[in-house]
Amino acid sequence: MVENANVCTLVRSRHHARVYNAVCLRKASPVVISHISHLARSLATARPGSPPNRRIPSPSRTAEQVLAEELETAASVVKSDAVPSESAVQSALKLCENLARSVVEPIESPETSTSVEKTPTSNLLSLDEQSRAPMMSSPTKTLSRRILEDPTPDSISSTAHSIVTDPKVFITPALLATYLYTQSVLGRPESFPVIFDLYASKPIPQPGRLPIKYKDANPKRASSAVPLVLAHSALTAAIKAKDLTLCLSIIDTSVCTTAYKRSKILRRALLPFSGLALTPAAAYVLAAQLAHYQHSMDHQMATNMVFAGIVAYVGFTATIGVVAITTANDQMDRITWATGTPLRERWLREEERALVDRVAGAWGFQDENKRGEEEGGEWEALREWALMRGMVLDKPELMEGME
């Protein structure tokens, strides 16, 4: 047996004329284990006439080279002087996403039959299975250890970040979603607030011009608002990272912006208010038609009376509906509005309150009987942060048993 730093060469008798190369799996990184298994299976299917002393390249070096080539391919999309297309940038980010999933996700052990004959090759493969057994027993613990110890996630994360932050790349909602998912898989959500700021205020490159000219973006436009579903996914990653400051920064740069409030008004309030604005004209036309069906009073007087009745009915009903919507608290868990908060502000900032409610639920006790007993610096900081924004953490009159 010849042994060096990485490879142990096992030479059997000259009668068999075979060479088995076993890689020391316990020292290999998790990224390399799948490559080792592939090499071992290729040895098992090798023909007897193959050269006995053939050296196999180090799998770890091969894996590192493949990873470097893939990252170089992804980063090459922004190395050109021209503005890259959205599809090209999306392909590069998808490549980073696939690399992130292959590095971080636990490697599944192959299914083997119980009737497999014990051979030197199966013994060699058993080393691979033994190295994977602890990984499959506790995937959460292993995942955290791999993320912290393996430098590969850092290189993938930095490559994706360099692509998105490049001045020539215009961040679209699709690109933002892919980037957030990639960094969430890698457990690197620290850059989310910066990316949200860039999404709203990054200068827009003008394609087809050399040198590239940039147009200033308006961060207060409704189109600059971060989609709510992406804000929720970013907050989920920050909660998993147990970073309270990051959670609050994500809330500040997503649903607290002027752009998001304008977007909400356009999406959810424009149609109802347009209908309300057209109500007087529609009511007058309807009143004039209904006035023809009576003969007890003057036509104009009847029209005015019907018009006043329709407008009063629509106005009173709409007012009750607005009050019911803005004062509803069934969806609130631990964060509620402070007394005196205007109804208009409650409706505009409901998503902000909901995200803060998620953070409070993640940092506080899950047992409802222990709520209100939390203490510590982070908990008090969260309470003060909510109070400065017109919200109350654990309002006593709304807690269980305190009605």
Major beta sheet, strand line-up: 1-2-3
Runs in which pLDDT lies below 50 for 5 or more consecutive residues are 1-33, 35-60, 107-116, 130-149
Number of strands: 7
Order of helices and strands: EEEHHHHHHHHEEHHHHEHHHE
Number of domains: 3
Helix content: 55-70%
Radius of gyration, whole Å: 32 Å
Our count of helices gives 15
Percentage of residues in strands: 5-15%
Largest sheet: 3 strands, antiparallel
Write down the oligomeric state.
single chain
Distance between the amino and carboxyl termini: 78 Å
Principal-axis shape equals flat
Structural class: mainly alpha
The average pLDDT value, as a whole number, equals 79
Biased composition (Polar residues): 110-125
Keywords: Membrane, Transmembrane, Transmembrane helix
Biased composition (Low complexity): 52-61
Region (Disordered): 43-62, 106-143
Can you describe what's shown?
The chain has 403 residues and is mainly alpha-helical. The protein folds into three domains: 2-107 and 118-256, no CATH class; 259-327, no CATH class; 329-403, no CATH class. Helices cover 59% and strands 6% of the residues. The chain is built from 15 helices and seven strands. The chain has helices spanning 30-44, 59-75, 86-104, 120-137, 139-149, 152-165, 173-186, 192-201, 228-240, 244-254, 258-290, 299-327, 343-348, 350-363, 377-388, and strands at residues 2-3, 7-11, 19-23, 204-206, 213-215, 335-337, 391-393. The chain has a three-stranded antiparallel β-sheet. A two-stranded antiparallel ribbon has the order 4-5. Helix 2 (59-75) packs antiparallel against helix 3 (86-104) and helix 7 (173-186) runs parallel beside helix 9. The radius of gyration is 32 Å and the shape is flat. The N and C termini lie far apart (78 Å).
